[in-house]
Amino acid sequence: MSWIAEAFAPDSVVQALLILCLAGALGMILGSLRVLQANLGIAGILFVGLVLGHFGVSIHPVIQDFARDLGLILFVYSVGQEVGPGLLASLRKHGLALNALAGFVVLGGGAIALLLSRVGGMPMAAAAGLFAGATSNTPSLAAVQQALKLMPHSTEALVEVPGMAYAVAYPFGVLGIILAIAALRFAFRVDPKSEARKLEALKEKDAPRLQGINLEVRNAEVDGEPVSRIIGEIGGGVVVSRLARAGGPQEVPRSFTTLRLGDILHAVGTPEKLERLMARVGAESPVDVREVASGFTSRRVVVTRRNVIGKSVHELNLRDDYGVLVTRIIRTGQEFSPRPDFDLQYGDVLVIVGTGPAIERLAGELGDSSDRLDQPQVIPIFIGIVLGILLGSVPLHLPGMAVSFRLGLAGGPLIVAIALSRVGRLGPLVWHMPLSANLMLRNIGISLFLACVGLKAGEGFVATLLDGGLYWIFGGALITLVPLILATLAARFIFRIDFLSVAGFMAGSMTNPPALAYAGSLAPSSDGPIMAFVSVYPLTMILRLFTAQALVLFFS
After folding, report:
1. DSSP strand pairing (334-336 vs 429-430)
2. Distance in angstroms (rounded) separating the CA atoms of residues 231 and 372
3. Residue 496, phi then psi, degrees to nearest 5
4. N or C: which end of the chain has fewer CB within 10 A?
5. Biggest alpha carbon distance in the chain?
6. Contacts of 279 (CB under 8 A, 6+ apart)
7. Which residues, other chains included, contact 92 with Cβ-Cβ below 8 Å and sequence gap of 6+?
């Protein structure tokens, strides 16, 4: 049985993998247990890590740091890849309110840290360390330590104080936000799945799905007018996909095709636009043009060819070159009208009307390969992560600040992933990640991160509690909870923001990926938490770094 001893040899890679996988599996099981209609979800891994760490289970520090940072990178990068295409729409909807509230959370935490020092008698170095740990923001700790080194009469012992305070406050900084989200859900009897349905309904209202309608030309004013002029008069956003002449064959109309009294046309657009078109053209027809025998058919084609990405439907000139028409574009579950400025991305689904042979020929040009769509683009993932690490390592300088800060391994990969997912393609590289691959990377990443954090924090957690650390823990809890609860109540009752977006905001205002993972696990089908998280993350990260350094440089 010597192989067992070798497998569990202290500080070996095999031992580290066994412990991390064990913590992940047990944590998932613990997180799935329901108590009072609630469960820990992904946060169960953190609790298992704390228990294992308390009882002396550990792995080599170098391996632990590597696994923790790798997990964090995989998690935030996959999050950025998913939310990038829809981020601007999210910012337009709640961005200003959420960022204002996130700024309040950051500055409120800084104010409490200042009070702990000025009123509570806590050394400012310790208060600043609590500010970083209570918000689980490691870059803030580095900023505090760098600022202390610039202070006159600074000593090595003084520089170590923020690290001790950070370690004491960190566990509750991670757990407190998760518990706050769970408490909010319990206190207001929120059903996350119901909230997800309501959020989806709001999205539907803001961006209604496209519909089809059959119209008969009865208005003499449009007799002889080209289709393009009629569409322009109602403001665009409508596609006329089929046209049946009285007693004649069907055709796919072009921009210069003229309308005649008695024509029956099939149009696709939003309900509002279709109402305008009907008022301009005539009335709804009981005849469904699509059911009338003709040589035309409708088919969905997936964009998987690299040379098409970045081009618009207008640039492809489909009507003239293929004799077909695109009636709608489906991207990440949302339907869009093929506007002239709407550029295609990898994985877009085009609904095409035309003859069978023409559509088949076009499908070959667009790719239409489900196998290729499901295959993750591995090289772009590696390149994106490298670019994210480099961006996170660049020292940034703010006016009036004596020291620099960095976005770190969380901010850099997140911002790069968002940017690349919006670009879609650079040369032969396509930044597309299938949903299944995205979820796999995300879950593996956050599991590694939580397991490592729990193992590290569990080593001295109980000892710190029993050795006079209760005051620091209490101070850290105040920094974590007080501003967060006030901002959350304002978001919920003043700004009327849905629960899932509030949960994502809570995680983002604390730059806390584990809390985001927990919020996402409440309603896996909704992207509300992730959108809110990335909406506030950049401002929060910069403001936390500035506030942490300001506590030391301006108030010591």
Report:
1. unpaired
2. 37
3. 55, 45
4. N
5. 96
6. none
7. none
To which residue do tokens 């330590």 refer?
Answer: 145
Q: In angstroms, rounded to a whole number, what is the distance separating the alpha carbons of residues 495 and 490?
A: 7
- Position 146 scores a pLDDT of 64
Residue 337, φ and ψ in degrees, nearest 5:
-80, 140
Distance, in Å, from the CA atom of 87 to the CA atom of 90, rounded to the nearest integer, reads 5
Distances (CA, A) of 457 to 152, 153, 158, 377, 440: 32, 31, 22, 36, 26
Asked whether 163 and 196 are in contact (CB, 8 A), the reply is no
The whole-angstrom separation of Cα 208 and Cα 497 is 20
- Classify 34 as helix, strand or coil: coil
Return the bridge partners of 425, or none: 430
371 with 380: CB under 8 angstroms?
Answer: no
pLDDT at 104: 93
Length of the chain: 556
* Residue whose pair of structure tokens reads 């009036």 in the numeric block: 400
pLDDT at 3: 62
The encoded tokens of residue 21 equal: 């996988």
d(CA 41, CA 514): 10
Which token pair is 207?
């961006």
Record: fold of 305-368? Alpha-Beta Plaits (3.30.70)
Task: Count Cβ atoms below 10 Å from residue 148 Cβ, excluding itself.
Answer: 24
CB 91 within 8 A of CB 538: no
Q: Which helix (H) or strand (E) holds 98?
A: helix 96-118
Query: Where does 290-355 have alpha helices with state H?
Result: 313-316, 318-322
The CATH 3.30.70.1450 portion of the chain extends over 305-368
